[in-house]
Write a structure and sequence with these properties.
- It is a single chain.
- This protein is mainly α.
- Helix content is 84%, strand content 0%.
- It is built from 14 helices and no strands.
- α3 packs across α9, α3 packs across α14 and α13 packs antiparallel against α14.
- The longest helix has 37 residues.
- It is globular.
């Protein structure tokens, strides 16, 4: 699907427009990409440090280095299968810190719940700042009727699944119920921990870093350098959703960024260029740090032992 989206995005351009995109890549101000890289690493480090608080509340400890490498590996895994990074993060701590998978996975789910709430806040902020423009964009992009049918079907399937899980004694369901208890403890750890304020502080640092990465990324080419904060927030939300629901935003992120920027008068060539500059630079960081983490994680823990 990602390859198809890349083909679809570039197939709409003429050879002259493709040359314009190449020129924008060449002439981009990569000083701002350096700033983006800094904030990306800050968000990774803060996410790794934040994880310690929920694990500590459940009686487990993990050093910062293992957490950082686990988070980095999680991001690189998300490039292959969406949301597989959460599983790999928990597996890393299970292997190297002997933390039960269901407990650490539950703490990761809790993080995702908090992050989703923050993302919802940005969505509402974007709707408030750019309501009239975004209303038309969403109406033309999202097939509302099909979405309603999908929600109804998923609700029915979900209710049936909950019935099987909590009201039957089938062996697989009993096994899952036991694991759900561990996951639930991990999720609730966020709301019961003593270090709630520190946890929330790092959540703020993570999301400020995300926005800063996007803000400075927009300054890499002239046409998007002077966009208002409200437009940047709207574009940030669309880009975040593209990354959340795909394998690291491959194909989808640049396409969605160019689409949202086009309604603000930014040409498709400039929107596509800045989308790919942002995506490729951030993906490069993920691949480098994730690859190094795969290499150094066993070496570091062998020396630690």
């Amino acid at each position: 699907m990602g390859v198809f989206l890349v083909y679809y995005a570039f197939n709409q351009f003429t050879p002259q427009q493709l040359n314009q995109i190449k020129e924008q890549f060449k002439n981009a101000n990569y000083f701002y990409i350096g700033i983006c890289t800094f904030f990306s690493i800050v968000s990774l480090a803060s996410r790794a440090y934040r994880w310690r608080f929920s694990l500590k509340h459940m009686g487990y400890s993990s050093n910062f280095a293992n957490n950082f490498m686990a988070v980095s590996i999680g991001y690189i895994m998300n490039l292959t299968i969406p949301r597989s990074g959460e599983i790999s993060r928990a597996l890393v701590l299970k292997n190297y810190n002997n933390i039960p998978f269901d407990k650490s996975f539950g703490s990761i789910i809790a993080e995702r719940v908090i992050d989703f709430v923050v993302l919802l806040g940005f969505i509402f902020l974007a709707l408030i700042l750019q309501f009239s423009t975004l209303k038309d964009f969403l109406a033309s992009t999202i097939p509302l009727e099909k979405l309603i049918y999908l929600v109804v079907i998923l609700t029915i399937i979900g209710l049936f699944g909950l019935y099987l899980l909590f009201f039957t004694n089938l062996k697989p369901m009993v096994f899952i119920r036991e694991k759900v208890k561990g996951v639930t403890e991990g999720v609730l750890s966020v709301f019961k921990m003593k270090n709630r304020l520190e946890f929330l502080l790092h959540t703020v640092i993570i999301w400020v870093s995300f926005v800063a990465t996007f803000y400075f990324g927009m300054k890499t080419i002239d046409e998007t350098a002077m966009l208002s904060f409200s437009i940047i927030v709207s574009s940030f939300v669309v880009g975040s959703l593209a990354v959340t629901f795909t394998n690291g935003g491959f194909g989808a992120f640049p396409l969605m960024i160019s689409s949202i920027l086009s309604i603000y008068g930014i040409s498709l060539t400039s929107g596509t260029a800045v989308g790919w500059i942002l995506w490729s630079s951030q993906t490069a960081i993920v691949i480098i740090l994730g690859g190094l983490s795969f290499i150094f994680l066993p070496i570091f823990n062998k020396k630690l032992k």
